[in-house]
Amino acid sequence: MDEIEAKILEIDERKVIERIKSLGGKKVFEGEIKTYIFDTEDRKLKNSGSQLRIRDINGKFVLGMKIEKSRGKTKVMDEYEVTVENFDTMKKILKSLGYYLIETIKKYRVSYRIEGCRIDIDRVEGIPTFLEIEGSDEEKVVDCTNLLGFSEKDLKPWTIFDVLEKYKA
Predict the structure, then answer these.
(1) 102 close to 38: Cβ distance less than 8 angstroms
(2) Residue ranges of the chain whose pLDDT lies below 50
(3) May I ask the CATH class of domain 2-168?
(4) pLDDT in the model for residue 75
(5) What per-residue confidence (pLDDT) applies to 1?
């Protein structure tokens, strides 16, 4: 399944939430997400723009694989996810396949739905609050960007690795 999204960096969270609410946006999630990223020792997945992860979302574990297809105004990824029963067992399975835990990212996320898009406001320690806009196609992402008072120029077709590299450099 295609995931089409882009990020907007260094947002004013309060203003964005006010704008979303004024447009009739509905909150669909709020909470902490822990993301455990796995890769080979030589970082084959990261270097190809792909990502293998297990997310802990309120005690529910979701194994996901994202494979980069393209980058333009947005980032387009093939994304596959499945719920797993046991984090430790899944970690052992991944290790037996040659994948190791390379990074753990904790973020606090508030998510809204508006005009056919999912809007995620993410806070990661040491990084200014940023926005992720996901839609059914690039045009929908750009439309939602404009609705929120941003411009196409603000969009970054970045992965979380790109964001981390910008602020941890």
Answers:
(1) yes
(2) none
(3) mainly beta
(4) 94
(5) 76
